[in-house]
Amino acid sequence: MVVGGSGVDTIVRVGALPVPQADSFAVPPIREWAGHTGTGVALGCAALGLSTAFVDFIGADHEGELVKERLRGTGVDFDPMISPHGTRRAVNLVSPDGRRTSFYDGRDPLDLRMPAEHYLPYLRRTRHVHLSIMHFARFLFDDIRELGVPVSTDLHDWDGLADHHREFALRSDLVFLSAAGAGERIGAVMREILKEGRAEAVIATAGAGGAYLLTPDDSTPRHVPAAVPSAPVVDSNGAGDAFVCGFLHGRLAGRDLEECARLGTLAGAHACTSEGTHTALITAEELLAAAAEEEEPAAELRAPSLTP
Asked: Helices in the chain by DSSP H: which ranges?
């Protein structure tokens, strides 16, 4: 089950990031894609064969229709509520090497709440729930804990300081985040999440640098090398969401945490090989085949320490 995080991405391809200062630039055709983190996790989990429900708010607008159309026929049981504030949006600048800068329009007011009668029927029958860091989603934690459902979240580029993310970090069983947000402090942030919260694992994704895994048994984060994409990298939009899907697929199948992280890197690499958001969805067969074929030379296992 996925809660929150649908929206529409407007993709603008630029020559370089950061964009040089100028009044205007000629760019290739600007595209719109139904995307955002919740959509990506729901689509990715369904593509991997997991039964997936998705609840969220969207607007009665063009963007909301794009979200519904993208999810239709994918196997995702999408049950949205209509928000008068409209569907979330983002404008993403994407460079030729696939890097991006995103301008996010979250739309949701702080008093937006999802009625329990809307989400509880799904929550009572799910094996796992993934919460996007929408403000309304934090109010599901008490019901999640009462029902004993394992929960994951993605903090994205959290710096370890912003209050908005903290409750998600400390009340989730699996915590994903980008290493870029905290920079050199990422190891300390991961340890703080484990010490102060209830997580069984914290996973920091580092793009081409792979990922880092920290559990209560680890003194320092374990490095998981990046997977080599099967085709040229053209767009990193949705790669983090794909990583989460690969990881959860492994975890729900009973695999150990490091193996789950490895599956996450493979799914994330696959997502970078297609233009647009959530357009390259790896299947379970493709994921497990990639894992079976991959060989890691011992020299590649060395990585910089995350100890501050």
From this structure: 37-47, 62-71, 116-123, 141-147, 163-171, 179-182, 186-196, 239-252, 257-271, 284-293
